[in-house]
C-alpha cells in the first residue's frame, strides 16, 4: 500500500532567489532576479504561469498610463511582455486601445489604454521567457510552510505528488496573492477590511466566442444615452437588456449590468459579471462553494447573453476560469502601509519603486451592485519599496496583491500592471541584496531605483 510520507523526501533543490507563486507578480519577479545573474527557482501550484491572467481568465491588463492617459508609466518588464505579445499577435498595444470602447466595456474614466490579450499567448511567452532567463520552474508544487532560522527565512516546505520536500533560497519572494508565505512566517496581516468586517466579492471570469461584434456595438451605440454614469464612470453597460430579462423573469442575479470586455479577436469577449460575496480564499470549503456558485452564475449570464443581447445570439461559452477570481484576501503588514489617501493625494515617496495611476476602485464591498470609486487628484502615485518588506521577518519580500496596503488602497494597486511592476522591483531587490551581501531591508532603495531605471522602469 502506498502511504504518504510526511517527512521530506528530499532537501536538494536550492537557488539564490525562491519565488513562490507564478502569477503576474511572480513571473516578473523571477525574470528580473535571474537577469541580475542570480539563480532562481519558481514554485507554482498550477501547470502554467500567469495566475489570474491565464488560469483565472482575467483581462484586459488594466491601464498602464497616467491619469490623463498621456504617458505610459508602467514600463520595464511589463512593457517588454506587452511588446512581445503584440509581436506574436496575441495582444493589442495599449497605445491604440482607448476608453469608452468595447475593450473597456465602454467604461471611460480610469480605463484609457488597457491591454487586451490572449491568455494562451501569455502562457507560451512565459515558458519562453523563463527558459531564456534561466529560471527553474516547478509546476504542480504547493508552498506549505516556511523554513526559518530565528527571524530569517531560509527556504520552504513544499508538496507535490513526489511528496513533501524542502527547497532552499537565500531570499524568498511571496507572490501567492494571498500572502501565504508571510502569513505562515508569522507576519501580521489584515483580512479584507477588518474595521468594516467586509471583503470584496469574488468573480468567476469566463470567455465567450462567436460574438457578432458589429451587432453588439450597434446596440450599445443605440443605447449610449441610457448609460448610468457615476463620477463619470459607467458601471452599467447593457443594463437596459438586464432590465428586460428581469421583467421576463429571466434574471435571478443581483447584478444590474454586464462587464463585457472585447479581446484581440473581435468575436471573443471576456465576461466579468458574476459576484460571489464573502469568499475566504484561504479556506478550501469557502473556495469550493465559490467555484460552484461562480459556474452557476456564468451559465445564467450565458443564457441571458444568448437570449437578450444583440450580437450574442450565437455566442458560445469558450471557457470558465480554472479558478474563481479573488479580488481581496490578506493584506500583509510591511514597513509601510500604503493608504487610499496616499494614492488619492498622488504621493510619490522617495523610495517609490513604481509609479501607477490605477483608480481607487472598490467593487461590491457592500453588496453585488455597490461600487466605490475615487479618482486620484494628481497624474500618478508611487508605491514605496517599504510596502514590499514584511515586518518581523528577514530575507522575505512581497509582490503583487498581498503587499502592505490598506484594503481600499489595495483596490487600486491589485490590478495586473502594478503587480507586474512590483514583481520586477522585488526580483531586482532580491538579486541586488544577494550580490551586496545585505538583507532586502538593508538594501539602499535609491540604488534599487537606479537599477530599475536602467532596466527601463519609469520612475
Ligand atoms: C474579479 C477580478 C477582476 C479583475 N479585473 C482585472 C482587470 O480587468 N485588469 C487587471 O489588470 N487586473 C484585474 N484584476 C486583478 C488581478 O487579476 C489580480 O489582482 C492580480 O493578478 C494579482 O497578481 P498576483 O501575481 O499578486 O496574484 P495571482 O494572479 O493570484 O497569482 C498568484 C499565483 O500564485 C500561485 N499560488 C498561490 N498560492 C500558492 C501556494 N501556496 N503555492 C504555490 N503557488 C501558489 C497561484 O497558483 C497563482 O499562479 C481582477 C481580479 C479579479 C479577481
Layout of helices and strands, plus pairs?
Blueprint: E1 10-20, H1 24-35, E2 40-43, H2 76-87, H3 119-133, E3 136-138, E4 142-149, E5 152-160, E6 163-174, H4 180-184, E7 189-191, E8 206-209, H5 213-222, E9 229-230, E10 233-234, H6 239-247, E11 260-262, E12 269-271, H7 284-308, E13 316-320, E14 330-332, H8 340-344, E15 352-356, E16 360-363, E17 371-374, E18 381-384, E19 396-398, H9 407-413, H10 416-436, H11 445-454
Parallel strand pairs: 1-2, 1-6, 2-3, 6-19
Antiparallel strand pairs: 4-5, 5-6, 7-14, 8-12, 8-13, 9-10, 11-12, 15-18, 16-17
This protein binds flavin-adenine dinucleotide (FAD).
Flavin-adenine dinucleotide is lined by residues 20-26, 43-46, 51-53, 58, 60-62, 142-143, 175-178, 180, 203, 272, 325-327, 400-401, 414-416, 419.
Give helix and strand order, one letter per element, not per position: EHEHHEEEEHEEHEEHEEHEEHEEEEEHHH
- How many helices? The count is 11
Q: Structural class of the helices, strands and pairings? A: alpha+beta
Which fold name is given in CATH as the topology of the largest domain? Answer: FAD/NAD(P)-binding domain
Q: What is the share of helical residues?
A: 25-40%
What is the H level of CATH, i.e. the homologous superfamily of the largest domain?
FAD/NAD(P)-binding domain
Number of domains: 2
Main β-sheet: number of strands, strand sense, barrel status? 7 strands, mixed
Q: What characteristic shape results from the CA principal axes?
A: globular
Rg computed from alpha carbons, rounded to a whole number of angstroms: 21 Å
Enumerate the distinct ligands: flavin-adenine dinucleotide
Mean pLDDT: 95
CATH architecture verdict of the largest domain: 3-Layer(bba) Sandwich
N/C terminus separation: 59 Å
| Beta-strand percentage range | 15-25%
Count of β-strands? 19
The residue ranges in which pLDDT falls below 50 over 5 or more consecutive positions are none
CATH class designation of the largest domain = Alpha Beta
Amino acid at each position: 500500500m502506498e502511504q504518504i510520507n510526511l517527512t521530506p523526501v528530499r532537501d536538494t533543490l536550492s537557488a539564490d532567489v525562491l519565488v513562490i507563486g507564478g502569477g503576474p507578480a511572480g513571473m516578473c519577479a523571477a525574470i528580473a532576479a535571474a537577469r541580475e545573474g542570480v539563480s532562481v527557482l519558481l514554485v507554482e501550484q498550477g501547470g502554467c504561469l500567469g495566475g489570474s491572467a491565464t488560469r483565472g481568465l482575467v483581462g484586459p491588463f488594466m491601464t498602464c498610463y497616467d491619469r490623463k492617459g498621456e504617458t505610459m508609466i508602467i514600463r520595464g518588464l511589463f512593457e517588454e511582455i506587452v511588446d512581445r505579445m503584440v509581436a506574436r499577435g496575441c495582444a493589442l498595444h495599449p497605445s491604440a486601445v482607448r476608453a469608452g470602447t468595447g475593450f473597456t466595456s465602454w467604461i471611460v474614466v480610469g480605463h484609457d489604454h488597457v491591454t487586451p490579450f490572449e491568455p494562451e499567448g501569455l502562457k507560451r511567452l512565459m515558458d519562453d521567457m523563463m527558459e531564456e532567463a534561466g529560471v527553474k520552474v516547478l509546476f504542480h508544487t504547493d508552498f506549505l510552510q516556511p523554513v526559518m532560522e530565528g527571524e530569517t527565512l531560509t527556504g520552504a516546505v513544499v508538496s507535490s505528488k513526489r511528496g513533501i520536500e524542502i527547497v532552499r533560497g537565500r531570499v524568498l519572494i511571496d507572490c501567492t496573492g494571498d500572502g501565504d508565505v508571510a502569513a505562515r512566517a508569522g507576519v501580521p496581516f489584515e483580512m479584507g477590511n477588518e474595521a468594516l468586517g467586509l471583503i470584496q466579492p469574488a468573480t468567476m471570469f469566463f470567455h465567450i466566442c462567436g460574438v457578432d461584434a458589429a451587432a453588439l456595438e450597434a446596440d450599445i451605440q443605440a443605447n449610449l444615452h441610457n448609460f448610468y454614469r457615476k463620477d463619470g464612470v459607467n458601471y452599467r453597460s447593457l443594463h437596459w437588456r438586464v432590465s428586460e430579462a428581469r421583467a421576463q423573469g429571466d434574471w435571478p442575479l443581483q447584478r444590474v449590468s454586464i462587464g463585457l470586455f472585447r479581446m484581440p479577436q473581435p468575436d471573443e469577449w471576456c465576461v466579468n459579471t458574476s459576484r460571489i460575496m464573502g469568499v475566504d480564499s484561504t479556506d478550501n470549503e469557502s473556495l469550493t462553494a465559490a467555484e460552484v456558485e461562480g459556474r452557476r452564475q456564468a451559465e445564467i449570464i450565458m443564457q441571458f447573453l444568448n437570449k437578450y443581447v444583440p450580437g450574442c445570439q450565437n455566442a458560445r461559452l469558450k471557457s470558465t476560469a480554472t479558478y474563481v477570481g479573488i479580488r481581496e484576501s490578506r493584506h500583509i503588514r510591511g514597513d509601510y502601509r500604503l493608504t487610499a489617501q496616499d494614492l488619492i493625494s498622488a504621493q510619490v515617496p522617495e523610495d517609490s519603486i513604481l509609479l501607477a495611476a490605477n483608480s481607487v476602485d472598490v467593487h461590491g464591498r457592500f453588496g453585488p451592485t455597490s461600487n466605490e470609486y475615487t479618482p486620484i487628484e494628481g497624474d500618478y502615485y508611487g508605491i514605496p519599496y517599504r510596502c514590499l518588506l514584511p515586518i518581523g521577518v528577514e530575507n522575505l519580500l512581497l509582490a503583487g496583491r498581498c503587499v502592505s496596503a490598506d484594503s481600499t488602497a489595495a483596490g487600486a494597486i491589485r490590478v495586473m500592471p502594478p503587480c507586474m511592476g512590483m514583481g520586477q522591483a522585488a526580483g531586482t531587490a532580491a538579486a541586488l541584496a544577494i550580490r551586496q551581501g545585505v538583507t532586502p531591508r538593508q538594501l539602499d532603495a535609491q540604488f534599487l531605483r537606479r537599477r530599475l531605471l536602467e532596466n527601463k522602469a519609469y520612475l
